[in-house]
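Appendix C: a fully annotated inverse folding record. The material below is reproduced so that readers can follow the format used throughout the book. The structure is listed first as tokens, followed by the designed sequence.
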């Protein structure tokens, strides 16, 4: 009887435990991707990017004499139908850890097992299963540094080899056509603008890692904080769809460390931040949509879409760091980490707006959107998260820009207004935005919507009035 391999955030052949297990059974393997309510419920950019990733993985599988079957519907119903159509005796997948996926997967596992189907899930989206990292008293970690001290010396299993062929069934079950799913549709600017900045697929992700280690890891410690230079790996979009495994990145970092390459340990540490985000999400799932610290429910955040929020989204707050970063995200589908910290702090503190509003906009725009990293990032910036001390830190976007973009490169790269000869990047924002925003690079750069000192005082006063 064939085995069904349920493809999710693991669009790769290498270091793919579920796929390797399926191939090792010596029976036909039927890879299936299911467009279900968990996947479809995501923002425009993640759905758009996913479509490109699925297309690339389908091609990869074709190269191995296999196929990727596409089906739409509730996962359990789709899998049951496939089992009935193909006579499959087993279903395998690689585990996910966000609350929506976990709830779905455990229901699917229970129901299929009751049907007499052998169901098995595997590790691979993370290096450290969230329940295997414990404090001395048997709890979970709420702060990154002790988490890091616990995992940094651990042996991470060496990546599994990619299968060289997938046994195919005699008859393939029917598949939807990817084009009919119209995953591009919700993102008007996707194909024309954002796609140009994407690096899609397993081979491209591996090249990206190799290139980063070869040319940029030495300067990573300092360059990673400069939004105007290409100092980071850019791998988040690939990691979020599993086009490369974290263990492959980790081992590349460890090898570079062994060669004495500066910056390699910091790279591994950043990968551990991703693990930490999932550790928190597994142990406290509320982090994805509620204040991690419940006391923050009383914080007087605005929850309406004010004019200030609209201008924040459009990159027209009059605050160059904020605006450059918001435009970068609108055009490229990603934003530099320093920019993410600044725009999130600005929205939640200077504009006193609920982090959920920012989180939703990020989910609409980010091709590297990740349920755990995004939620942790927002709650860290807002002060409501577990590792957000001091919660009263309020970044000053002006001094931050002077410090991390001393030559004004990032600003020039993304803000056309006021430049005689703006670069393509800055102009591309005006090509990307909808007409009804009625903006032009010839406009004058907007005035500040909030005075930095006043905004800061207002946020501090709100903190003081509460007993956190
Ligand atoms: P590199 O510097 O090359 O780091 C390598 C990898 O380590 C990254 O690809 C990522 O997987 C991981 N990593 C690095 N920094 C962090 C971090 N602070 N937290 C968790 N993992 C990290 N990251 C996402 O992948 N998706 C998101 O939706 C997301 N939303 C964020 C929202 C906010 C408000 C903040 C402050 C941060 C967010 N991050 C998110 C984390 C971080 O900004 C990105 O992972 C990083 O900018 C990706 O660029 P890179 O791949 O070049 O990173």
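Designed amino acids, in order:
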């Amino acid at each position: 009887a064939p085995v069904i391999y349920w493809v999710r955030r693991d669009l790769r052949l290498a270091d793919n435990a579920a796929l390797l297990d399926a191939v090792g059974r010596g029976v036909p393997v039927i890879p299936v991707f299911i467009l279900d309510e968990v996947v479809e419920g995501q923002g425009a950019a993640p759905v758009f990017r996913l479509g490109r990733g699925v297309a690339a993985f389908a091609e990869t599988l074709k190269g191995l004499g296999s196929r990727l079957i596409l089906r739409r519907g509730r996962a359990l119903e789709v899998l049951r139908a496939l089992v009935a159509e193909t006579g499959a005796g087993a279903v395998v997948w690689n585990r996910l850890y966000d609350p929506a996926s976990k709830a779905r997967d455990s229901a699917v596992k229970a129901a299929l097992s009751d049907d007499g189907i052998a169901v098995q899930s595997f590790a691979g989206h993370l290096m450290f299963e969230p329940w295997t990292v414990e404090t001395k008293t048997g709890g979970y970690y709420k702060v990154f540094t002790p988490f890091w001290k616990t995992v940094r010396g651990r042996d991470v299993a060496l990546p599994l080899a990619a299968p060289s062929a997938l046994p195919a069934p005699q008859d393939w079950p029917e598949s939807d056509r990817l084009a009919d799913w119209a995953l591009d549709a919700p993102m008007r600017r996707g194909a024309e603008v954002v796609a140009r900045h994407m690096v899609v697929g397993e081979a491209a992700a591996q090249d990206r890692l190799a290139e980063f280690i070869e040319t940029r890891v030495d300067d990573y410690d300092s360059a990673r904080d400069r939004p105007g230079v290409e100092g980071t790996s850019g791998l988040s979009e690939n990691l979020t769809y599993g086009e490369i495994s974290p263990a492959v990145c980790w081992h590349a970092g460890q090898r570079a460390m062994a060669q004495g390459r500066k910056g390699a340990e910091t790279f591994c540490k950043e990968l551990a931040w991703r693990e930490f985000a999932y550790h928190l999400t597994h142990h406290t799932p509320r982090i994805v949509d509620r204040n991690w610290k419940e006391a923050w429910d009383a914080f007087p955040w605005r929850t309406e879409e004010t004019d200030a929020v609209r201008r924040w989204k459009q990159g027209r707050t009059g605050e160059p760091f904020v605006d450059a970063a918001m435009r970068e995200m609108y055009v490229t589908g990603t934003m530099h980490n320093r920019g993410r910290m600044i725009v999130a702090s600005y929205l939640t503190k200077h504009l006193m707006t609920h982090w959920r509003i920012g989180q939703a906009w990020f989910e609409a725009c980010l091709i590297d959107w990740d349920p755990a990293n995004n939620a942790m990032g927002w709650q860290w910036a807002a002060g409501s998260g577990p590792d957000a001390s001091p919660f009263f830190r309020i970044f000053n976007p002006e001094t931050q820009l002077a410090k991390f973009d001393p030559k004004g490169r990032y600003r020039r790269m993304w803000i056309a207004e006021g430049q005689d000869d703006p670069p393509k990047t800055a102009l591309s924002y005006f090509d990307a935005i909808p007409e009804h925003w009625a903006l032009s690079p010839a406009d004058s750069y907007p005035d500040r919507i909030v005075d930095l000192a006043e905004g800061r005082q207002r946020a501090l006063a709100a903190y003081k009035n509460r007993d956190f």
